[in-house]
Amino acid sequence: MNKIVSVFILLFSLLTITAQEEDVLLTLALDSVFSKVKDTEPGGSVYIQKGNQSLYSRNFGLANLKTKEKFTENTVSNITSVTKTFIAYGILILQKQGKLLLDDSLVTYFPNMKNTATAGKIKIKHLLSHSSGLPVIATKTNDTLVFIDRPDFEPGSNYRYSGVDYNILCLIIEKITGEKWQAFIQKYIFEPTGMISSKIVNGNYKDKQRTQGYKKLKGKYTAYNTQSCDEKYPLCNSIWTSPGNLRKYVYAIKECVFLDCETAKSATQIYKHDNWRSMRNPTNGFSWTIHEEPNKDTYVECAGSGSGLATQIILHPKQDIIIIWVSNNDVSYSNLLLQKLRQRAYVK
User: Fold this and answer.
1) Which end of the chain is more exposed for a tag (fewer CB within 10 A), N or C?
2) What sign does the CA torsion over 39, 323, 305, 28 have?
3) In this structure, are residues 47 and 324 in contact, taking their beta carbons and an 8 Å threshold?
4) What does the buried/exposed string (b/e) look like for 277-298 if buried means 16 or more CB atoms within 10 Å of the residue's CB?
């Protein structure tokens, strides 16, 4: 009997050692992604989780070269277009409340359009999935709605990333709720999620504690100038938040904190319209991109970048792996991080 117990103890010890060795090898592999970033240079923060267990967490470099403030999980940074995921969930919350339908046309909310026949073909679901045919960006005009009269292709037939789509979604939130869309997101997503250090502010935000974005020119880092942004342009008001708060956000999505699971899941599934005509298969949900490749695990991601600041959230549903990274050095880390995880067989 004692011999059997001894064998089990030995086997358990060997398994434990193997697991510990794997942890070290994964850490070394992921550390190598950031090996060229010096402590005195712009950096970022990365967090990787599998299930409820942290696989990797690292903060590197400086948030601001002038103040020498280090990048930490509490560093506040502009997540730029990742803001669109919050807007998409805001629309889905209103759908769940019975205040709109994704098949509602824009004429429902903007009945005074010049070309109601054209506006009537563009629906909320087209805006959410970037398939409206509206422009990529707006001009300096403050009236986003002028673009509704002239989509470049039949709504639902093709894909084109469009900031105008999400500007109009912000206006729809305001039409329905009678309050600023920022206040709605604060109330229905930030508060239940516990994102207490998060703000939705204008692109001209000049808080001394904010992260500064940098670009490298001739071997030297240069600060980006603060973007000039018209306060009346909805998406100039993007979210400033910390890596720690982004963890709370992803947890809230995963655990259906601010929206029921079935409705929340629709945002991260490919949405193909009945009249789809593009040669390319659709890859978009509602502000999320779904990557399906032969012999690889399907994963979902959203990303934002601008003025040297970058953010990305990657979800691997099959392996229950989450990757969140933020940087201020004009560098994207996604491909290298995924490469290291594939090499260690955490994802396929």
Assistant:
1) N
2) positive
3) yes
4) eeeeebebbbbbbbeeeeeebe
Tens of pLDDT, residue by residue over 200-225, are 986 566 666 678 999 998 889 999 87
Q: Which two tokens stand for residue 20?
A: 């510990």
The class that CATH gives domain 39-199+229-343 is: alpha beta
Burial of 324 (0-12, 13-18, 19+ CB in 10 A): buried
Orientation of helix 163-177 relative to helix 83-96, angle to 10°: 40
What does pLDDT average to in each consecutive run of 10 residues of the chain (348 residues)?
53 54 87 92 96 94 94 93 96 98 94 83 96 74 68 92 91 95 96 93 67 91 74 70 96 97 96 91 95 92 92 96 95 93 93
* Residues 286, 273: Cα–Cα separation, whole Å: 13
Alpha-carbon distances, residue 148 vs 18, 58, 152 (angstroms): 59, 44, 10
Query: For residues 44 and 78, what is the distance between their CA atoms, to the nearest angstrom?
Result: 12
Sequence-separated (6 or more) residues with CB below 8 Å from residue 55: 26, 48, 49, 321, 346
pLDDT in tens, 10-34: 445 544 546 667 788 999 999 999 9
Q: Report which residue type is found at 141.
A: T
* Spatial distance between the Cα atoms of 241 and 80, rounded to a whole number of angstroms: 10
Tokens describing residue 337 = 């991080």
Q: What share of the chain is helix, strand, coil (3-state, %, to 5)?
A: 35, 20, 45
Q: How far apart are CA 268 and CA 139, in angstroms?
A: 30
**What pLDDT score was predicted for residue 251?**
96
| Spatial separation of the C-alpha atoms in residues 331 and 336, rounded to whole Å | 11
Give the integer Cα–Cα distance in Å for 256 and 262. 9
| Rounded distance between C-alpha atoms, residue 305 and residue 328, angstroms | 9
Placement of tokens 């229950």 in the chain:
320
